[in-house]
Structures are given as structure tokens and as C-alpha cells.
Design a protein that fits this description.
The chain folds into 2 domains: 30 residues, no CATH class; 109 residues, Orthogonal Bundle (Cytochrome Bc1 Complex, Chain D, domain 2), CATH 1.10.760. It has 7 helices and no strands. It is mostly helical. The N and C termini lie far apart (38 Å). It is 53% helix and 0% strand. Helix 6 packs across helix 7.
Length: 141
């Protein structure tokens, strides 16, 4: 690579980091309140995991991807990249209650809208738990 090309690449990367980098780094999902943190997912039966997969594919896959990698069909259109659930340690680092809270209430400052009861999506608590159990089974690494 010629020196002129190296400089051009460095300028482009630098411009990206100066503009997009801070916005991406600035987002951190807040911790769920204590009453949510203490929630535990009900034990999943085979039928619950099957339903959880169905709901995940209908409601979550377009952003988070079928492999939980954050590379769904709509991922390129998001302001903040979708979470990669399959990233090593991610699922283990989140309590059931934290995952429930994010799914139910959404994530402020991102495209993750509220999916819980009373929202436009209006998933029941049971359906949210089915999705979380499916995600734990499928994406925990």
C-alpha cells in the first residue's frame, strides 16, 4: 500500500471514530430496578422453548439475528447496533430480571422499543419469559 493510500485510510478511520465512535460508546443500558433484578425465569418446558423461539423469530430476529449475533435484516438501519446475545459471556452476565426489564420496557436511546403488556407489541409476561428462556438456551456461550 502506498503512503498516500495509508494516509487516506487513516483519515477515513479517524473521521469515523470521531463522529460515530463516541455515540456508539456512549450508550449503556441502565441497570434494572431491584424489584426486576430479583425476578427469576420460570423453569422452561420443551413447549415453552419452542414458543420462545417462535416469538423470538417474530419479534427479535429482525434486529438481533437468527443466531443472536446482532446482524438481523434490519440491523443496518439502527442508530445503536443491536446487542449480540451470542457474544461470549453476554447472556451469563445478565440476570433474568435485567433481560425481562429490557424486553418489557425497552432501552431508552436505542431502537429497542417496549414489548411488554400495554405496549404496542403487547407481549404477555409469559411470552417474554419464553423468549428469555429460548435466548438463554440458544445463545449462552
Amino acid at each position: 500500500m502506498r503512503i498516500g493510500t495509508k494516509i487516506l485510510v487513516a483519515v477515513i478511520v479517524g473521521a469515523f471514530l470521531l463522529t460515530a465512535g463516541p455515540a456508539l460508546a456512549a450508550h449503556k443500558t441502565p441497570e434494572a430496578p431491584a424489584d426486576y433484578q430479583s425476578k427469576k425465569a420460570p423453569k422452561a418446558k420443551k413447549k415453552d422453548l419452542k414458543k420462545g423461539k417462535k416469538y423470538y423469530e417474530k419479534k427479535c430476529k429482525k434486529c438481533h439475528g437468527s443466531k443472536g449475533d446482532g446482524k438481523g435484516s434490519s440491523a443496518d438501519d439502527l442508530k445503536i447496533p443491536a446487542t449480540a446475545f451470542n457474544a461470549p459471556g453476554y447472556m451469563k452476565s445478565k440476570s433474568d430480571g435485567q433481560l425481562f426489564w429490557i424486553t418489557e420496557k425497552g432501552s431508552k436511546g436505542t431502537d429497542m422499543e417496549a414489548f411488554g403488556p400495554g405496549s404496542d407489541v403487547n407481549l404477555s409476561e409469559k411470552k417474554i419469559w419464553q423468549i428469555i428462556n429460548y435466548m438463554r438456551k440458544e445463545f449462552t456461550k
